[in-house]
Protein phosphatase 1 regulatory subunit 3
Amino acid sequence: ARSLPAYPAALLDPDSGRKRVKFADSMGLTLTSVKHFSSQEEPQIPTKVLSRYKSFPPQQDVLGDLCQNFRSSLDMDRLVACFPELRDADRRVQELRVCLEQVSITQFEVRGQIRVRRGCKVREVGIRYTFNDWLSHVDAQALPVSPVEEPGSEARFSFTVYTPPFMDPSSAVHFAVFLRSDQGEFWDNNLGQNYTLRYRSMPDHGFVSSVLHAT
């Protein structure tokens, strides 16, 4: 039996039987000779190499485009309140036992303050919100603004909701505030309509947070 040759015939010089080695440049073209250039001599690029280089598609700055789109969305879309200015907190807290007293809106979050009527034995105060028109929702607990010194005094609680940075411009944030106490569960849901924040296109004059508070 005969073994295979150590080198394929295509790599052997037909005259001497020795191996042939071919070099290629970065473009995949055969490198026939090597020339050293001095710093004063400007190298000439072959026409074939230059035309192949120009045939490549231009590189796109994907990251730059993404940053520009993100900045544009921040410049144009703002969450704005779709409910009247909060008023008559004293009356509403007496009727509902809990009421939304203040809301502030920034680019990435919604902060608010909830007021609870005197005499309520609070178990939990919080906010229920949704980003998808109540297909799902989240209950977030509100935290006391300051310790309640007297059992019969009113209490205030604060909450923060972080909004997604890439929400669809047609989407909205709906929410209501609640009180769970020994007397039962009570809601302030804007007379059954819920509190709603929607995206609106705004001119780029620098973002200023909006604040709504009860008087």
Q: What stands out?
A: Residues 79-213 form a domain with the Immunoglobulin-like fold (CATH 2.60.40.2440). Residues 62-76 form the longest helix (15 residues). The chain is about 15% helix and 35% strand. The longest strand covers residues 172-181.
